Structure formats: C-alpha cells, structure tokens
Amino acid sequence: MKALANQSTLIFVSLVIITLLYLLAPILTPFLLGALLAYLVDPLVKRLEAWHVPHLLSVVLIFLSLFLGVILLISLALPLIVKQLEILAAQIPHLLDWAQNVGMPWLLQFVNINTLKTSIPATLSKTGWVISTFVESGFAAIQSIISIVLTPVVTFYLLRDWNKVIAGIKSLLPKQVAPTIIQLSRDCDEVLGAFIRGQLLVMLCLGVIYGVGLSLAGLKLGLMIGLIGGLLSIVPYLGSLFVVIAAIIAAIVQTGTKEAVISVIIVFIIGQLIEGYILTPYLVGGRIGLHPVAVIFSIMAGGALFGFFGILLALPVAAVLMAMFRFFRKRMAS
Known about the structure:
It is a single chain. The chain is mainly alpha-helical. 88% of the residues lie in helices and 0% in strands. Helix 2 (25-50) crosses helix 3 (55-108). The radius of gyration is 24 Å and the shape is globular.
C-alpha cells in the first residue's frame, strides 16, 4: 500500500511538471538548452576537479575552451563555406532556368493554373492575415535572438552552480521517495548521456560520408549538402530527406544527366546502409527502445509544443521517458 502511495505521488509530481513545461513553453527554450549543455559539459568539469583544479576555475577553463573551440571551428570552416556559397551563387541562374523550363511545366501537370490565379489574389487580399503573420514572424525572430544570447549565459551559471542545483533538488525530495527518484535519475542519466553522445557521433559521421561521397560523385555543392544533411540528421529522417532531394536537384541543375542522378542515389543508399547497419546500432544502439512510429510521434509532439527546438529535444526527452517507463515496470514487477 505504501509503495502504491509513493508511485501515485511520483506520477502526480510528474504530471504537474509536464503541465508547467507546457504552460511555460514560449520562454523555456534558452533554459532547456542551457541545462542540456551544462549537463553535457559537467563531466568534463568533474574530471578537472579530480585533478585538484578548483571548481570555479574548472568551469571557466571548460567554458573558455568550448568558446575558443567554436571560434576555431568557425574560422576553419568559414573559407570552405564561402567557397561553397560562391558555387551556389554561380548555380542560381542555372537553377532558375531549370525551374522555369523544367520544374514549373512538370508542376503545372498536377496543379490547375486557373485555380491558382483566383486563390492567390484572394489570399493576398486578406491584409490582416498578412500583417499578423509578419508580426508573429518578427516576434519569433526576436525570441530566437534572445534565446541565442541567453543560452550561453544560462549554461555558464548552471555549470558553475551545478552541484548546488543537484543538492537543492535532492533536499526538496520527500524522504520516502528520495531513494526511488535518485535511482531513477541515475538510470535516466545513463540512457540520456549514452544516446546524446552516440547521436552526435552519428551526425558527424553522416556529414563526412555524404559530403565526401557527393563531392567524389562530381557534385560541386556536395560538401555543403552533405554537412547540412549531417547536422539535420539530429532530427530522424529530416537529414536523409534533405540530402536526397537537394543532391538530386543539384545534380539535375549542374549536369542534367541520368548518370549524375544515379551517382547521387548510390551515395545516398550507401550512406543509409552505413547509418542503419553500422553507425546507429553500434553508436546509439537500442538505448531508447522506441518503435519507429513512436519516434515520429515524439518529434511531432515536440515540434507542436516547443517549435524547432522541441523537435531537437524530442528524442532525448523520449529516451528519458522510456527509461522512466522501464524503471516503473521493473518496480511493479518486483
């Protein structure tokens, strides 16, 4: 009976937290990202502390190292990005020509042009809708800038006071359920840490595989498409979808030959096979244990609640929820 009461308390607290997260969603992004970054970096701080480096100095050293690392990465990548953008700019006239002579005629086979002529002016005449959409976009842009500025600040302060934050949370736990919650937190930490580290490695490997593969296939924009696809692969299926569509369009615009398109498809298939049979099983594995349909639902739910950043955080949150489910199932079975 006592165990059932403890579980009811945990479920109630979880529901309250989820409700608060939903209500505060518009302002939570920098705090969630800051907490995630602090969580990822804290093991490095603890490693320095194990070498008898003071805590605050460890935090400052790690924070500065990350900042300088980002600056170095940008400085190294910037010339490459500029070169790829120059290639993209040179391809724009060809892309517009292709869209006018090939893309639009193909599209008009499936779209009634008369319907478009009547619906577009009617839509544009709704001035209030246009203005409200513009204002909402402006607020969204301002909110994104604020999030970008606040995230490193939140990360630093959380990292500095991480031990105090954890100790404070533990002190708030009821004594009856404290051991249960602490053990559950350790299980979630193990699953979440392993998943995030593995997913980052998968992103890096996919970016290199697609970038190098498409470049070797003769695609001038292959490196840019591959690296962007690698970054987007943090959202399941989005990176793959971007790579295959963007690379095929680039191949058609650049050469217009079937051979180029076939080469792109071969690179894409090889990348998918490596990801599906080597990278994901070995680097991420079945740590989440979610069905593919549940993965898609998690991503859509994250996007609906928190926008783009919700999509990014959907799978880590799903990993934690799955760890909680396994924990409670084990407790009920025992």
